[in-house]
Amino acid sequence: MLGTDTCAAARALGIDVVAFSHVELDITDRQAVDRAMRAASPEVAINLAAYTNVDGAESDVVGAHAVNASGAGNVARAAAAVGAWTIHVSTDYVFDGSKRTPYVESDDTGPQSVYGASKLAGEVAIKQAAPDRHTTIRSSWLFGVNGPCFPATMLRLAEERAELTVVEDQVGCPTFTPHLARAILEIVVDPDRRAALAGTIHVAAAGECSWFQFAGEIMRSAGASTAITPGSTAELGRPAPRPAYSVLRTERGDAVPVLPEWNEGLAAYLSARGAGG
Known about the structure:
Blueprint: H1 2-12, H2 30-40, E1 44-47, H3 61-81, E2 85-91, H4 114-129, E3 134-139, E4 142-143, H5 150-158, E5 163-167, E6 171-172, E7 175-176, H6 177-188, H7 191-196, E8 199-202, E9 209-210, H8 211-222, E10 227-231, H9 233-236, H10 262-273
Parallel strand pairs: 1-2, 2-3, 3-8, 4-7, 5-10
Antiparallel strand pairs: 6-9
């Protein structure tokens, strides 16, 4: 989702993009990454590859870390070698969810899942590989038209079921990938802004909601008649623990891009799908 939207937005701005699919470049292959980076010799390298199967990672620790940790380090190391700036996307799942006020960049991390731990290890790998030439962007609950996501699942289930149970004890910031893509490019095109935003920043949709509230707004906005019933994370019984509260906000100042409200992203998503009610 994010890779497709970022490439499209970059090309619309006239930026010369060299993009690789997983088949074309496996970031766990250090030598392949080195060769690709030397051939492209970019000004900025954006790592949008990730192992995103949160539940699957619980039984595939090696695979998750190979992509999210070692792979991320490979990209940053190769980028630094050719003088490129690395932009990397991380996650709200690096936090334990025990706060009840938004997480900022200086808050202590404490991932509860293998996925979260692998993404945090990736942040560390990037710091080590490109200490002064990287921006790590933590975002959350991504959704977009170019891949599987929560709204797509809800709309599919709305056609199959009269009632759905959705957890109400996880709260975050649903972030529309075209909005995040534009934010990434705001940093890409401005070397001074990149320098000002070295290190870690939080960029997620404004506002907050639970998955239950998100689902309800999806159904209401799409004109679906499916009833949404609140449930608990414990009842769902998923393999990987999720943070109960993972709203992200920034303490890094006005240079950090600001995204629209999550419901504006949802409206744009439904419009793009032709599903708005």
